[in-house]
Structure formats: C-alpha cells, structure tokens
Amino acid sequence: MTAETFRTIWQKPDDPSVVQIIDQRVLPHEYRVHDLHTWQDADTAIADMYVRGAPLIGATAAWGLYLAALADPTSAGVRAAGNALLQSRPTAVNLRWAVERIFRLVDASGDDLVERIRRDAQAICDEDVEISRGIGEHGVELLAEISRRKSGETVNVLTHCNAGSLATINYGTATAPVYFAQHRGIDVHVWVDETRPRNQGSQLTAWELARSEVPHTLIVDNAGGHLMQHGLVDIVITGTDRTTRCGDVANKIGTYLKALAARDNDIPFYIALPSTTIDWNTRDGVKEIPIEERDPEEVSHIYGMVDGKTARVRTTEEATPISNFAFDVTPARLVTGLITERGICEASEEGLLELFPEMRDA
Amino acid sequence: MTAETFRTIWQKPDDPSVVQIIDQRVLPHEYRVHDLHTWQDADTAIADMYVRGAPLIGATAAWGLYLAALADPTSAGVRAAGNALLQSRPTAVNLRWAVERIFRLVDASGDDLVERIRRDAQAICDEDVEISRGIGEHGVELLAEISRRKSGETVNVLTHCNAGSLATINYGTATAPVYFAQHRGIDVHVWVDETRPRNQGSQLTAWELARSEVPHTLIVDNAGGHLMQHGLVDIVITGTDRTTRCGDVANKIGTYLKALAARDNDIPFYIALPSTTIDWNTRDGVKEIPIEERDPEEVSHIYGMVDGKTARVRTTEEATPISNFAFDVTPARLVTGLITERGICEASEEGLLELFPEMRDA
Question: For residue A270, what are the β-bridge partners?
Fold first, then answer.
C-alpha cells in the first residue's frame, strides 16, 4: 500500500450504494473495513469514533447524507438526516461545515439530488486531499533542505499525536511532508510520540507509517528531549486543532513540552495546518482557548491485546484521582513556522496575513 | 497508615528470623507482603524487582546477609552469599556498597556474627531514614514558604517517577518534603506524572501517597506544561539517579521536559538527593553520563487489571520498532536548587562544595 492509494473513506468499488471506512477503534490490532449502508451507520461511525480527525468527520457526514438521499431522495429526508448527524459530535466544526454545505445543495434547483450529493461528498474529500497535498508540497522543502545540509543522511522528524492520513482523507497534515519526502526519495525517519493518554501515536501514526513503509520508531512522550539533546531530531512537525490570529497553536496535550525542547536545542519546530483551522478571532491562545477536560478513564484504562484477544485494562488503582486535559497551547514564540496549503509563514499575525491578505480586515 | 510507620523492609514482628518486604511488582493492584526466609529469597527479590530504588536494594542485600548468617554463621558462608548477591543487579551501586560494608563486619573480630550483621542491616536502614529525614526537613521549608506566600492556600507540587518511600526505607527523597509538610499541617497536593514507560508514578507514587493520605492527582506526562502555564503548579521536586559535580542531574526520562516547562513559567524546579548519589568525578552530564536503553517491551506492554485479574497487555502492533531510553539529563542551568540531607544548595560546583567542603580537592 502506498501513500497515494491509501484513503480513509471511499465508495465500495463494486457497490456504489455502500461507503467504506477504516474502523479506527480497533487499530493497530485489527485492520477492519467497515461498511456504511445508511446515514444512521455514518452517525454511529462519527459518534462512536470509528472515524476521528476533523476533515474525516466532515467527509463522513457528507457521505452519510449521500446514503440518506439514496434512501429518501427528498430535501426533507436529507435535512432530517443532516440535523441528526449534527448531534453526533456537537463540537466538531468540520461536521457542521460539511452538513451545511450539503444543505445548500439540497436547496438549489436541479435534478438527481442523489448524484449531486454524491459528487459533492467526493469533492469534499478531493478538496481535503488537495489541502494535504499543498501542505506536503510546501513542507517537503524543509526536509529536502535538511537532507541537502546532511549530505543525504537520514532526516529525523519527530511528531506528536496523529495528524496523519487517518485524521484526514489522505497524506494527513503533519505527515504530508514526510510522505512527499518519501516519494522524492529523501531518506526520512519519524520518531513517533506514543501520545498518552489515547496513544494516537503508537496506535495510529505508527500503523499508518508502517502501511506506507516509512521508517519510524515509537518512543514514549518523555523521550523527545533526550533525543534532541543528542542530535537525533532534525525537525519537529505536529498538527493543530486551532491556531490563533497571532500564531499560538492548540494541539494535543504535550506539544508545548516538545516545542520547549526544540527551542532549547535549536531544532526547528513547525506546525502543519489547513487554513480552515485558523481562528482569526482569537489572539492569545493560552488565555483565550478553552482546554477540554476528558474522561479520566482515558488515563486509567488502556486498550491492547492479551492472549491474542483485545482487552481493556485498568493500569491504576481504582480510587486514584485523575485529571485529563486533552490539549495544550504552544505560544507562537516557540513555533519556527506554520506550514499551510498556501505556503510556509512565520507564526505571527504579520506572517499569517502575508499568506492570507484577505483576512487583514477580518 | 501514616508516613511515620510505613517502612519498605522490616523484621517480622513475631519471628525475627524472617525479613519482610512489600512486593512492588504487583502494586498498585495488590498489597502483598513477601517473606524472605533465606539469602536466596533476598537475591530473587532484588533480581526480579520485588524491590527497586537504590537505597532499598542496598538494605535488602544487607538483610539478605543477615539471613545468610542465620543459616551459616561463618565468615565463608556470609562471603559466599554476598558474592552471589552482587550478581543480582550488577549495576546497582548501593548493592555493592551494602555488601562491602557487611563484609568489613565479617572480617572484624567479635562474637555473635549474626547479631552484629543484624544490627548493621538495621543501621543501614536507620541511616537511610535519617538521610530522607534530612532532605524532608530542609525541603519542607520551601513548601512552608510557598504556603505563607499563598496565605495558606494549597501548595501544588509536581513530581516525576517514584522517588518516594517505596524507593528508600521511609519518606523517600522527592516525597520527603511533602510528607514533612503534611505533618506540619501545610495544605499540600501532588501532581503525579504517570511516568511512561514503567508507570512508576501511576503505580507506585500514587499508591504510596494514597496510603499516607496525601492529596494527589495523577496526570499523563504530557500534562505538566499546561498545568504550569495556568498557575496550577507551585514547585517541581524530583529525585535523581546521579548528580554531577557541576549540578547536572540524570533522572527518569522526561525530567528534562518538566525542567524546561518550569523555567518557561518561572516555577522553582528542585532535585532531592542523598549526597551519596553525587558523582564528584563527572562534570558535563549530557556529555558524560551514559543513558541506558532498556527492553522495548517496557513500552509496548503494560501491566494492569482485566476482569478482576492482573494481565500483561500489548498496546502496540507487534512489529512496531521501539526505542526506550530510560533516563535523561537536566542541565544545572534549569535546576533551581538541590535538596540534600545537609541542606539546600545551588546546582553548581560552588553550591555543592559549600555544603560538602571536604570534596573540594577530590
């Protein structure tokens, strides 16, 4: 399987009335393709986290509305399904965006509603792949430059969490420059942070890099500083959930610690992001971005294999009090640059506005 | 159970021919007191990590030689046992120190070898408690000062790994100031880093703080930076495996990342250490201290409870390449101070030599 062919959602080749996804809940222990026959199946897939990652959630909702139209090709039928889908993960911005985009299609005149929705769901996917491709094409230049400086020796990238293909439709965001480097024949290796508590690094990023045959090594989240002190990391690239107008970056908890270590060791620290995740209305990320606290069981329990079967294991004493903040904010001063689909810029209001001048007065 | 009464090794109250330890392998899921009847039992306890932590390993070896003398109260018998014990964990400095101390006793004249060794094993334990007490008495002043500044509001301490009672005989090193604060009635709360990959935080530190009724909250290693950014940490205190003459500190992997976050947020970062762990012959910790790489299965597998039974679970794909560095080095420039049994000093050669002037020409 190469990065080119590995998408996370698609129509079943021999049956276009079925949409297929990878059941990410059971990765990496099982590769299970899951069929969506109805919009209710899509609803479950989003709510129960068969799929995760903002772009993929949006795409799954759009394909869900295609399935809804197949069953009931009326404006009312699609709208009812869409309103229900919006409840599956109420805080997912891309979910709302995708549903509203399909709603506009329903309102427009024209025949064959099913085919129009199918084409738009496909377009949502293709556009997301184009965004990842843009990030990859700009980001790969950073890796190419390091490779030249090292006379072709291995370029060591460190990443945190999964901002990979599995979070998008293809290529991912933080991983896109890596996949593009591999295609160019650049010798690249990825240090994969385990990413406690949900282990997206060890269970998703390591899985997808293996599928695409990108050399990688799993490390605990504690290890990055040591590796950087000893010259074993050339660049850090992570994704982000939200970037402020001034370049502060909210991402998976622990990203800030890696940014500090990168700065202390003069290692470039980049954030890869689709411009849709820039929040032009916030400035100070630490002060303004609310940080979600999640279920303590994400910390106390872990999913794995025992005797050839999957099991959920409690690793702590039952009574242990636990706090589980899901994200942290890396201040712009620690970010070397932002890799967007339009290019790379400084993590600052001026830097962002040079790439997105249309937001100057927004 | 209070901190006062909770020791990690003792003679069985109603049978002085038996030495008892806590089987730390099954914590926190089970509290199992394990009987040592023979020096071979002590050997197994050390080799199979029923006990860990340098001071406790040394004490277990000394008590093992008491058991050896009970079985064969001759110089030859004790020496044979001691030489075997030295192989149980060849790199443990305190193990060699304790065995050699007992050997000197064997060589000296006097009667009742068994009672002489028993008294010395007890002395080794009592001396270690005195070291922890010294660290506690000096370190508690830092917490008292913060408490005063906060007008008695909760003092939030963050710690990494287990430098607690369970690693020593009582009080621990990093935890000693906390236990002493509790005794003084200072309102103290500990953020406990999970400490991947071996989870000494979630499985040992959380356990012992609970036993001593010290308020605490378990967090993933990724969370500390976020807590510090938001004023939720007043001081960081960790232990150390080795401190250089210039104040660089080797400790559990990930300590360096917490030191960086503390510095970035102007939070005091202290290391608690018995002076026996100062290596007066090294200066630059990053360059000179070799960092052990351990079994990748420590990362890929985790120990926990499934359906009321303990189980070892694999959390990664079987083929995932893993790197597992056990320690990192925190440069002295990031360390606010060193808490020793003699007092608190700056993390520098001058600071250390003021407390230990006898090492000036060493």
Answer: A237, A337
A292: nearest CA partner in chain B: B226
Could you say which of A77, A97, A126 is where a domain stops? Answer: A126
Structure-block tokens of residue B179: 């236990």
The domain boundary residue, chosen from B96, B126, B156: B126
Alpha-carbon distance values, B9 to A183, A291, B34, B57 (Å): 59, 44, 10, 10
pLDDT of residue B2: 45
With a threshold of 0.90, tell me whether the complex ipTM lies above it: yes
The pTM score is: 0.95
* Chain B residues 15-34 within an 8 A CB cutoff of chain A: 28-29
Q: Residue B1: its pLDDT value, please?
A: 37
Closest CB from A206, A221, A304 relative to B314: A304
Q: Is B28 exposed, middle or buried (0-12, 13-18, 19+ CB in 10 A)?
A: buried
Instruction: Give A-chain residues touching B203 at CB under 8 angstroms.
Output: 315-316
The pLDDT score that the predictor gives to residue B5 is 54
B260–A256 CB contact, under 8 Å: no
Q: What is the mean pLDDT of residues A25-46?
A: 96
Q: Are B302 and A304 an interchain contact pair (Cβ–Cβ within 8 Å)?
A: yes
Q: Which of A54, A46, A81 is nearest to A65 (CA)?
A: A81
State how far residue A8 is from chain B, nearest Cα, in angstroms: 19
B191, B317, B323 member nearest A28 (Cβ): B317
Q: Is A258 contained in some domain?
A: yes
For residues A74 and A160, membership in a common domain is answered with: no
CB contact under 8 A, A329 and B229: yes
Same domain, yes or no: B165 and B67? no
Name the one residue in this structure whose structure tokens are 């399909």: A102
In this prediction, residue A175 has a pLDDT band, given cuts at 50, 70 and 90, of: very high
Instruction: Give the Cα separation of A75 and A123 in Å (integer).
Output: 20
Asked if B317 and B168 sit in the same domain, the reply is: yes
Inspect the interface and report whether the beta carbons of A323 and B219 lie closer than 8 Å: yes
Query: Which residues partner with B310 through β-bridges?
Result: B305
Q: Is B222 in Cβ contact with A252 (below 8 Å)?
A: yes
Are residues B142 and B83 located together in one domain of the fold?
A: no
Q: Which of B222, B301, B328 sits opposite A253 (nearest CB)?
A: B222
Rounded distance between C-alpha atoms, residue A99 and residue A83, angstroms: 8
Q: Which residues pair with B272 in a beta bridge?
A: B339
CB contact under 8 A, A311 and B313: yes
DSSP secondary structure letters along A161-211: S--SGGGSSSS-STTHHHHHHHHHT--EEEEEE--TTTTHIIIIIHHHHHH
Do the Cβ atoms of A278 and A250 come closer than 8 Å? no
In this prediction, residue A111 carries a pLDDT of 77
**Token pair belonging to A160:** 């945190």
Instruction: Look over chain B and give the mean of its residue pLDDT values, rounded to a whole number.
Output: 95
Could you give the CA distance from residue A80 to residue A103 in angstroms, rounded to a whole number? 10
CATH code for the domain of B36: 1.20.120.420
B182 and B100 in one domain? no
Active site residues of A: 241
Locate the chain A residue with the closest alpha carbon to B254: A222
pLDDT band for position A93 (cuts 50, 70, 90): confident
pLDDT band at A205 (very low <50, low <70, confident <90, very high): very high
In a domain, B157, yes or no: yes
Residue A1 pLDDT level (bands cut at 50, 70, 90): very low
| Closest CB to A320 among B218, B291, B324 | B218
Q: For residue B189, list its beta bridge partners.
A: B156
- State residue A12 phi and psi, 5-degree precision: -60, 125
